[in-house]
What we know:
This protein is mostly helical. 68% of the residues lie in helices and 0% in strands. The chain contains 3 helices and no strands. It is a single-pass membrane protein.
Amino acid sequence: MSATPKPTSSEDIIGQKYDRCLADLIVKAGVGFGAGVVASVILFRRRTWPIALGTGFGAGAAYADCDRSFNPARIPGTRIVSPTELAPASK
């Protein structure tokens, strides 16, 4: 038995990111839905728009997190360093 870990394939990494995004979408949209239902019942005389708004906010937040997961260059303050920029610094 070898102690070296098996390298993770790129398909597995993408699959894990999609799974994390889907779970995040379900949780955040569910929380938004719940907050919308509470707001609808307590504040807005049982209208439906707070439910849709809360669910949309949750789904939008999950979409933004997923977008940052797949494209880290969109995170504010992140700089992508090319290999040519790294070469002089390592000497």
